[in-house]
Design goal:
By secondary structure, the protein is an all-alpha fold. 69% of the residues lie in helices and 0% in strands.
């Protein structure tokens, strides 16, 4: 009978195995992950606020432009109506006596051409 011999292995089984003191503690493993996450969130928030601010300014500029456009249109309409009233005034200045029929004819013509004159 042959005697079996046992060999005691004192070196690591694989060359990639590291000694216990070389293993990183949990803080060193989490720190790069936390920094990457924080940087990503910070960049995302900065981009969000930058885009939101620019969009808000664009909306305000467009609103101002539209409001100015409507105001100018309204002002032009009021000016046209006011000019038609000057026509009525000029009728009174041009003649010494304005008959009821002359006034009615002129007023009817102005009202037909400018129906918004009632607003003044």
């Amino acid at each position: 009978m042959a005697l079996a011999t046992f060999q005691i292995v004192t070196e690591p089984a694989t060359p990639a195995a590291k000694p216990a003191d070389a293993v990183l503690d949990w803080r060193a493993r989490i720190l790069p992950l936390a920094l990457t996450f924080s940087l990503g969130v910070s960049i995302s928030l900065a981009a969000f606020f930058l885009v939101r601010t620019n969009e808000q300014q664009r909306v305000e500029r467009e609103f101002d432009w539209r409001a100015r456009s409507h105001f100018q249109s309204l002002l032009g309409g009021v000016d046209r109506l006011e000019e038609s009233l000057y026509t009525m005034r000029d009728l009174f200045y041009a003649t010494a006596q304005v008959s009821t029929w002359e006034f009615r004819d002129t007023a009817t013509d102005l009202i037909q051409r400018h129906p918004g004159i009632h607003l003044l």
